[in-house]
Amino acid sequence: MQLTLDQEDINNAPEAVRSWLAKFINVPTPPKPAPDTPLQAPAIEQVIEAAMKLLESKGEDVLQEVLNKVGVDRVKNCPADKRAELLAEIAVHA
User: Fold this and answer.
1) d(CA 66, CA 53)
2) How many CB atoms lie within 10 A of CB 86?
3) What gap in Å lies between CA 94 and CA 83, rounded to an integer?
């Protein structure tokens, strides 16, 4: 039996598999980033631009539906911790 792994497979493998590969068959594996590394929120300008495109293509009712689903009253008032969620909902409705 032959098993072929490329570097992407190794990088995406669970830590236990990566450790086994490094220990038993001497495959170097780069460390994975810490899962608790904070992600930077999208810029408010990016959110506003996406919302404007949605408004132009689908109308005010769809934009309001998206805002309500995320729990935001206005795009420019969207807190940083909800910007990624708002962008995702805009993408779904676009």
Assistant:
1) 13
2) 22
3) 16
pLDDT for the residue numbered 8: 79
For residues 46 and 38, give the distance between their C-alpha atoms in angstroms, rounded to a whole number: 19
Tell me the average pLDDT across 19-38.
67
Q: First-to-last CA distance in the chain?
A: 47
DSSP track, 25-81: S----PPPPPTTPPPPPPPHHHHHHHHHHHHHHH-HHHHHHHHHHHT-S-GGG--GG
Q: Under a CB-based contact definition with an 8 Å cutoff, are residues 10 and 29 in contact?
A: yes
Q: Which of 2, 93, 91, 13 has the alpha carbon at shortest distance from 46?
A: 91
pTM: 0.60
In this structure, which amino acid lies at residue 34? A
